Amino acid sequence: MFDSLSPQPQDPLLALIGLYNSDTRTDKVDLGVGVFRDETGHTPVMRAVKAAERVLLDTQDSKSYVAPEGDRVFIDLLWTVVGGTDCGKAVAGVQAPGGSGALRLAADLLAKAGKTRVWVGVPTWANHLGIFGSAGLSVQTYPYFDVPSQAVQFDRMTAALESAEAGDAVLLHASCHNPTGAQLTAAQWAVVAEIVARKGLIPLIDSAYQGFGAGLEEDAAGLRTVIAAAAESLVAVSCSKFFGLYRERTGAVYAVGGSQSAVETARSNLVTIARTSYSMPPDHGSAVVRTILATPELKADWIAELNDMRGRLISLRQGLATAIGNHWAGSTAVAGQQGMFSLLPMKEADILALRKDHGIYMPTSGRINIAGLKQADVARVAATFVPLLG
Ligand SMILES: Cc1ncc(COP(=O)(O)O)c(C=O)c1O
Predict the structure, then answer these.
(1) Distance 172 CA to ligand 1 centre (A)
(2) Lining residues, ligand 1, CB within 6 Å
């Protein structure tokens, strides 16, 4: 049987990690996989996470099952961060193995409810296509970003959404989740919310980088505008990035709607989907997040460290954009983007040459993770980029 299967290509981003690790140059630079790094290139365990783990070590007295939907206190506390203390809607959530697991539950729920189409922006994360395809949904695309001009194609985006049909799902990237770094303005979020509500579309919002843009509350505004307007929404939340819990596979998916009974029905279906896939989510990461969010001092320290992480990203971004300066017209746009990512107009051959000649590793799409820079790298990386941009 195994021989009848065809070998699958390795995920290009994961393959890039292997290439980077096997490069022996000491001045190599990793702008690939989307993890936060500090100035030493390390992805730290956040202080509040360590403190919460100490609390759990001392107080956790059982490893018995929690509940099919996961830890309800975690689910409810995480929602207060994402949706606010009162979003004006009925909400029911289910814990999930990371943001990707949350997306898969949401996609399976859409399919189970008889929905067939989901609209995604171009560009988007590769795994959106994989997850939605695996769930049996047909993927439609809306234009989002023009790489050469570094501009959001908002008129083209809204025109495409106007052509969607009632009941279609629309994947939206919450703050800083977009691989382009380009955000919608508050006014643009309001326009999207109006279209989604008027046309009866179902927003599926993928949120992973809250706090990496302008601030924890500020970054939730667009998402909250959409869920307030839409009749029903799905929100997939990852704790991988803003709690730094990547390997703990921590997240949740929320059904947001008009009546408690409707969202509870959605929740029961999400639980059934989870039960027949992996039964129950892992507990450790959610217990950490619950402990942090339920303990004011830990929550304050988590936010303080998240603010410092954002400060580092902003400083690196401004440094890179300034160093590129007027050598490339897009540098002003890059300076105005937010979060860890930007998508640069570079040719694949040049990106491969960057790896070989300079030890600078980035995906062939031109998407860079700014957190992979060290302050000392900025001038050298900018100088190697300049002849390749445009
Ligand atoms: C499309 C998408 N959304 C969200 C995430 C969030 O990360 P995680 O699934 O590790 O929580 C990822 C990361 O792989 C992703 O590819």
Answers:
(1) 14
(2) 98-100, 103, 125, 127-128, 206, 208, 238, 240, 246, 251
Q: Is 39 inside any structural domain?
A: yes
Tell me: the pLDDT tens digits for 230-257?
Answer: 999 999 999 999 999 999 999 999 999 9
**Cα–Cα nearest to 279, from 108, 101, 68:** 68
> What is the rounded CA–CA span in Å between residue 36 and residue 193?
30
* Boundary-marking domain end, from 263, 294, 325: 294
Work out how many domains the chain is built from and give that number: 2
* Distance (Å) from CA 206 to ligand 1 centroid: 8
- Residue 27 amino acid letter: D
Ligand 1 centroid, distance to 238 Cα (angstroms) = 7
Q: Of the candidates 349, 345, 3, 390, which has an alpha carbon nearest to the alpha carbon of residue 180?
A: 345
Q: How many angstroms does the Cα of residue 162 sit away from the middle of ligand 1?
A: 28
Tell me the per-residue pLDDT of 142-195, one tens digit each, with 9 for 90 and over.
999 999 999 999 999 999 999 999 999 999 999 999 999 999 999 999 999 999
Kindly list the averaged pLDDT for each block of 10 residues, start to end, along the chain of length 390. 94 90 96 95 97 98 96 98 96 98 98 98 96 98 97 98 98 96 98 98 98 98 98 98 98 97 98 97 98 98 98 98 96 98 97 97 97 96 94
Expressed as residue numbers, the domain containing 236 is 65-294
Residues in contact with 26: Cβ distance below 8 Å, sequence separation at least 6, in sequence order: none
Q: Which residue has the tokens 């109006």?
A: 194
Same domain membership, residue 236 and residue 268? yes
**Probe residue for ligand 1, chosen from 35, 238, 249, 250 as the CB with the greatest number of ligand atoms within 8 Å:** 238
79 and 193 co-located in one domain: yes
* Atom number in ligand 1 closest to CA 101: 9
Q: Which atom of ligand 1 is nearest to the CA of 208?
A: 6
Q: How far apart are CA 258 and CA 5, in angstroms?
A: 46
Do 178 and 279 fall within a single domain?
yes
Active site members: 125, 206, 208, 241
> Whats the size of the chain, residue-wise?
390
Given 269, 294, 319, the domain boundary residue is: 294
Query: Residue with the nearest Cα to atom 13 of ligand 1?
Result: 100
Residue at 219 is within a domain: yes
> Residue 79 and residue 335: Cα distance in Å, rounded?
31
Whether 205 is covered by a domain: the verdict is: yes
Domain co-membership, 89 together with 202: yes
